[in-house]
Amino acid sequence: MKKQNVISWDQYFMGLAHLSAMRSKDPNTSVGAVIVDDKHRVVSIGYNGMPYGCSDDVYPWDREGDLLDTKYPYVVHAELNAILNAGRSLKDCTLYVSLFPCNECAKAIIQSGIKKIIYEDDKYADSETTRASKRMLQSANVELVRLDYRIDLTLNISKDL
């Protein structure tokens, strides 16, 4: 008899998004994204970080101060990294992301042809940029699905290995 208590596809792909987020050097907000096609194949993965060639030891990670002394003008968001890293068309794909996309990522998501976003956290729901994001995504008929749970990715690795 086969095993019955397996995780769902949504849990699996959100787990990959969380694993990807663990690569982020951002000390405050680590975000991961996974793009999946209709056959449950991973098309691309991304996390928030500095662009290629821009050392994360040189550029700032601060959240406050003069704009050029903060992370905001430099960091590539997880969703955009996943879109840019994709080696094929994203038409009709699904994006799994741990934090609801900002307005800039929403534009890239729409332009790439992604038709569904499954997300967990919506902590900036009341911000103007998130409201703009939702307005654009809804206008473009991108389906938005919020998961109301977190994935526990605790790894129990034997010290004997």
Structure commentary:
With 161 residues, the chain is an alpha/beta fold. 27% of the residues lie in helices and 17% in strands. The chain has helices at residues 9-21, 78-85, 103-112, 128-139, and strands at residues 32-36, 42-47, 94-99, 116-121, 143-146. The chain has a 5-stranded mixed sheet. Helix 3 (103-112) links the parallel strand 3 and strand 4. The chain is globular. Residues 151-161 have low confidence and may be disordered.
Short description:
The chain has 161 residues and is α/β, with parallel strands linked by helices. 27% of the residues lie in helices and 17% in strands. Strand 4 (116-121), helix 4 (128-139) and strand 5 form a beta-alpha-beta unit.
The value of Rg in angstroms is 17 Å
Beta-strand content bin: 15-25%
Unreliable residue runs: 151-161
**Helical stretch tally:** 4
Query: What gross morphology would you assign?
Result: globular
Tell me the structural class: alpha/beta
> What is the H/E string?
HEEHEHEHE
How many strand elements? 5
> Strand order within the widest sheet?
2-1-3-4-5
Q: Percentage of helical residues?
A: 25-40%
Main β-sheet, in a few words? 5 strands, mixed
- Roughly how many Å apart are the termini? 30 Å
Task: Please state the average pLDDT score.
Answer: 92
